[in-house]
Amino acid sequence: MNKTRADDTPLYREVEHTGDFGIEVTAPTRSELFRRAALALAALLVDPSHVEGTKPHIVDITAADDIDLMHDLLTELLQLFAADGFIWRDAAVEEHGPKLHVILHGEFFDPSRRTSRGEIKAVTYHQLTVEKTSNEWRARVIFDV
Amino acid sequence: MLLFSVLRVDSASTMQLIRRSDCLWEIPQSGAMRVPGRIYASARMMDEMRSDPCLTQVANVACLPGIVGYSLAMPDIHLGYGFPIGGVAAVDAEHGVISPGGVGYDINCGVRLARTGLQSDFVEPRIERLADALFSKIPAGLGSEGAIPGLSSQQIKLVAYEGAEWALHNGYATQQDLEHTEEGGRLAGADPERISERAYKRGSKQLGTLGSGNHFLEVSRIDHIYDARLASALGLHPGHVTVLIHSGSRGLGHQTCDDYLKLIVSAVGRYDLKVPDRQLAAVPINSPEGKAYLAAMAAAANFAWCNRQLMMHLAQQAFLEALAITPRELGFALVYDVCHNIAKFEQHDLDGRKRRVCVHRKGATRAYGPGNPALPEALRPFGQPVLIPGDMGRYSFVLIGLEAAMRETFGSSCHGAGRRMSRSAAKKVARGRDLFAELKALGVTVRAHSRGGVAEEMPEAYKDVAEVVEVMEAAGVTKRIARLRPLAVIKG
Fold first, then answer.
1. Which domains does chain A carry?
2. Residue of chain A whose alpha carbon sits nearest to that of B254
3. Is the pLDDT of residue A1 over 60?
4. pTM of this prediction?
5. ipTM field
6. Mind listing the domains of chain B with CATH numbers?
7. What is the pLDDT of residues B15-35, one digit of tens each?
8. Is B143 on the interface with A (CB under 8 A)?
9. Cβ(B424)–Cβ(B396) under 8 Å?
10. Closest-CA distance of chain A to residue B143, Å
11. Is A3 an interface residue toward B (CB < 8 Å)?
C-alpha cells in the first residue's frame, strides 16, 4: 500500500484489471481527491522518495464534469512527465467552479538515477468514476500500460 | 454522458449465445446492435469468459454506425477500452465511422520475425554474451532514448511520413525488408502535421526503442515444423535461430490516440451518433475529425514500422558483434512484420460483391490467404505469415493466412496469448521467487530493466497461446507453420 507523505494515509488502492492497471483513491474532500490522484500518478511513475520537490509548476484544467476533470488532469500530468520529463513530489489543488488550479512541486526526471517504476501509456475513460459517498469522495482510474 | 448511456446492450451474464460450431459462438443481433457478434473460442474458453464483460464489448461494437458483417472477436479476447482486445470490426468506407478505440493507444503495435542461418547449438553456448549485447544495443524501459540521437523535428516528421522507407533511405533497411512488411512499412494517407507537437515531444527520442510492459525482443529456436513446404517457403528450418520483436509507436502513438480520443469525444454530439461506451467514441470516416484522425493514425503507424525496423537493424549488429561472425554466416533476413492495432481500408467480399470497408483491428492481426495481391510476390502463392507471440517461458507461433480468413474474419486472426492474471496479482504470485533463475532453468536467459516488469509478464500471467492458435486453425482462418521456443528475452 502506498502512503501520503504527510499523514500516512494510503494514497491509493490497486484495482484488479487483467490487462492493465487500476487505482482507487479516496479522500475527505473533492480537492483532496484530485490532489491524491495526482500524487498517486506520480508514485506510479517514479519512487517519490527520490524526487526533490523544489521546482513549482502550474497546471490549470477546465472540464464540464468531474469525470472529465479527473481524466484531463491526470492526462495532462502524464503528458507533463512523458513529454517534458517533469515529476512532482507534492501538489496543491484549488477549486474554481469547473476549473482546477493545481500547483505542483517537483523536478525534472533523470533516468540515469534509475528510480522509474514503469511506463504508463494513457489514462483511460474505462470504468472511470468520481463520486461522493456518504462520508468520503472516491475515484477509480484505469491506466493503459 | 447521456449520449453514452442511451444504448442498452445486454450484459454478458444475460446475453444469449448461439454455438455455430466447435469454435464459433454468435451473439444474435438485438436491441441497438446493427449486426450480430461472433466470438472464436473453444468450449473451455467460452466457459471461462461466459460472464466476462468482454462479451458485452463485442455487442457494443456491433452498435457502431456503418458496421458490416459481424462484430468479431478472436480467441485471445479480453477486456479492452471500448473495443475488446482481439476485436475486429469492418465499417462501410463511405458511410461508416472511425473509432480510435478500435485501434488502441499503441497505434501499430505489432510484431516482426527475422530468421537467421544459425543453428541453435551454435548460439546456445553463447547466449549470455548475445543477450548482453542485445540488452546493451537496444534501448528499452522508461526514459530510454533512441540509438539514433539528434534527429531534428523535420526528420521525425519525415519518419512519420515515410515509415520504414525512411530507414531504407538512411541505411537501416533493405528493399526486401520493406517488401516483407505489412503495407511495405508505410501506410498511405499519413499527414505528419496531424500529429501534435506534444506527441512529437513525447515520442521523438524514442525512435528505435523497445518500450516496456509486454513489449520484448526474443531470440528463439524453431523447435517444431507443422508444414515443411510452407516453412521452407518462409525460410524457416528446424533448429534455426530467429528474432521476434514486439513493439509499437511508443509515446508518439499513445499521445496521438489521446489527442484524437479527446477531439472525437467532444465531436460525437455534432453527428447525432450514439454509442454505448465513451471509449467507443466515433465520428464519420469522411468528417473533418475522422479524416484528421486517419491521417494522424497513419503517421503514427509509420513511426512504429520505422521503430521496429531500426531495432531489427540494431539486433543484427548485436548478433554480428557478440558472435564474431560475418553477415553471410549470420544470414539475417526479415520473414514478415505485422501490425495488430490499426484501421485500414480494404476490399472484401460481402453478400456476393466487392466492397470497400475500413477494418478496425484491435489486438488482431491481418491474415490474408494465398493469392492476395497485397502480399509480396515471394509470399503470394503461400499466404501471409501471421506472427503470434506467447509468453516468455513457453512458445510463440508462426501461422499462415488461409483463404477462409477472407470469408470469415475480414482476413484477420488472433494476435497473442491474452492475459489470465492481472499485473498486481502476478506481482503477488512472484513475491519471493527468483523469476530470472526459474526462466533460466527453462532455458530462457532474461535481461530486463525492471524486475517488477518481469514479474508482471511472468509466463503464469498468460493463457496458453497454443490453445488460441488451435482455435484459429480449427476455424480454418490460419494454420500453424512453425513453433518457436525462447532462448533469450530482452524486456524494458
1. 15-144 (3.55.10.10)
2. A121
3. no
4. 0.95
5. 0.89
6. 110-260+281-491 (3.90.1860.10)
7. 899 999 999 999 999 999 999
8. yes
9. no
10. 5
11. no
